[in-house]
From TrEMBL:
NHL repeats lie at residues 49-137. It comes from the Eukaryota. The keyword Repeat applies. The keyword Repeat applies. Keywords: Repeat. One of its GO terms (molecular function) is ubiquitin protein ligase activity. It comes from Capitella teleta. PROSITE patterns: NHL (PS51125). InterPro entries: 6-blade_b-propeller_TolB-like (IPR011042), NHL_repeat (IPR001258), TRIM-NHL_E3_ligases (IPR050952). This is SMP-30/Gluconolactonase/LRE-like region domain-containing protein.
Length: 213
């Protein structure tokens, strides 16, 4: 795991050999929460790199993206299980959200997840190439993309901005796209001449984007 400053210089590198990291977020306590593909769980670290603990191994089938909400819950996108797992900070399951429209886990592969200011849970799905918006209780409120490659080719990272617009890394389309909170297309933030196959995405307090490419 690495921490960089705003100019892109690496300030700290830690946990090498302890974790096979995929998704990362900050908890309400200001700690780093990372999904670990090696032990298929979530591990926690302080901002100075100290290991703080872990949920039980094999808590998930294949944990990818992770996000924190204002209630202190952590939402994990369990890719091969086709669900979003909502857990408390200790790893106790609050409820699971099936991300397939027909509740068939074989028809959904959630990749990344974020939470907007209204606590709606927003996930990208690489199986049907869509973005899905759920209520905090898990009701599907909106789905867009859904195998229409002119809208989204192959979504990965997802965030929201200060107006709750949804910003998606379209890995297959080599672009970063912005949509309204209701899923209407606004603009391409970045296109193929600026970015190739974007994956993870984050936004700082000044509105700057950070991408993995």
């Amino acid at each position: 795991i690495q921490i960089f400053n705003s100019q892109g210089k690496s300030k700290l590198r830690f946990a090498q050999g302890q974790v096979l990291p995929f998704g990362v977020t900050l908890t309400q306590q200001g700690h780093i929460a990372v999904t670990d593909h090696h032990e298929r769980t979530v591990k926690f670290f302080s901002l100075d790199g100290q290991a703080l603990g872990s949920w039980e191994a094999d808590s998930f089938s294949w944990p990818n993206g992770i996000a924190a909400d204002r209630r202190g819950h952590l939402i994990v996108a369990d890719w091969s299980a086709g669900l979003l797992a909502v857990n408390d900070i200790n790893g106790q399951i609050i409820h699971n959200i099936r991300t397939s429209v027909n509740n068939n886990s074989n028809c959904s592969c959630p990749q990344y997840v974020t939470v907007d200011s209204h606590q709606r849970i927003i996930a990208t799905d690489s199986y049907d190439h869509s973005v899905k918006v759920f209520s905090p209780e898990g009701e599907l409120l909106k789905q867009f993309g859904h195998q229409d490659t002119s809208i989204i080719c192959d979504p990965r990272g997802v965030i929201t901005d200060g107006a709750d617009n949804i910003v998606v890394s379209d890995w297959g389309g080599s672009r970063v796209r912005m949509f309204t909170p209701d899923g209407e297309f606004i603009e391409d933030v970045l296109q193929a001449e600026h970015v190739q196959n974007p994956w993870g995405i984050a936004r700082d307090d000044h509105g700057q984007l950070a991408l993995t490419e």
